Amino acid sequence: MSYKFPDIYQFPPFFTKQPNAATFEAQLNHWQDIILGYCKANKIWILSETGSKIGSQSLDDEDNDDDDDELIDDSEATKEFNIFRNDTINRHASTELIDDIISSLIKSKHAEWINPINKKQGLLILWNTIEEWAYIVYDWIDTSGQNGSILTIYELQRGDMSKTQEFSGMCTPTLIKVLETLVKQGKATLLKDEGKISGVKFL
Predict the structure, then answer these.
(1) Using CA atoms, how far apart are residues 113 and 69, in angstroms rounded to an integer?
(2) What phi and psi, each to the nearest 5 degrees, are found at residue 140?
(3) Which helix (H) or strand (E) holds 200?
(4) First CA to last CA across the chain, in angstroms?
(5) CATH 1.10.10.10 region(s) of the chain?
(6) The CATH classification of domain 130-202, taken from the options 3.30.1490.100, 3.40.50.12780, 3.40.50.720, 1.10.10.10
(7) What's the pLDDT band for 195 if we cut at 50, 70, 90?
(8) φ and ψ at 102, to 5 degrees?
């Protein structure tokens, strides 16, 4: 699936914070649509705080250790493309504008910091909110007759049965949040091994 950037992405003022409140609100909405659309099309689950794709988008690293920076050392971030930079028109969004865009995404539940205390660990991009993802995952479980079954994290991310689903390839930090939401809804129980979440039983 490819993503076609809208014309406004080629408009230099788009990369400058607009002083008019109504124009700025529209600017934030356009930025949100672009980020979510691009990340969905390219299955990018995590962005660095500066707008680069996290290098490996590792599926196996969990966020149980708040001090673990392996997910997103900025030196590991993909340098070829940055969502906040358009080399064609030689424009880059300011730090202030980037912060406002990220805050807007978080407010609308379309992004979450992996670790708000250490933002270098990256920003989860949620083209579906966590609650929407929870519905999508459980609907698949229900319609495929897997209620009462136990699935590993790996099977949900890369299993043969799930590979055609939209959540296939989902990064571990996002998947854990989705499963925790299902637990709160009384639809799942998490299974742990040595303190780490290894699987889930769907109810």
Answers:
(1) 13
(2) -65, -45
(3) strand 196-202
(4) 33
(5) 130-202
(6) 1.10.10.10
(7) confident
(8) -65, -40
Amino acid occupying residue 185: Q
Contact in structure between 126 and 170 (CB atoms under 8 Å): no
pTM of the model: 0.85
- pLDDT tens, residue by residue, 122-157: 999 999 999 999 999 999 999 998 888 899 999 999
Q: Which residue has the tokens 């299902």?
A: 182
Record the tokens describing residue 122, joined without a space: 């990256």
Assigned CATH topology for domain 7-59+69-125: Arc Repressor Mutant, subunit A (1.10.10)
d(CA 127, CA 171): 13
- How do beta strands 111-113 and 123-125 pair? antiparallel
| Confidence check: pLDDT of 56 > 70 | no
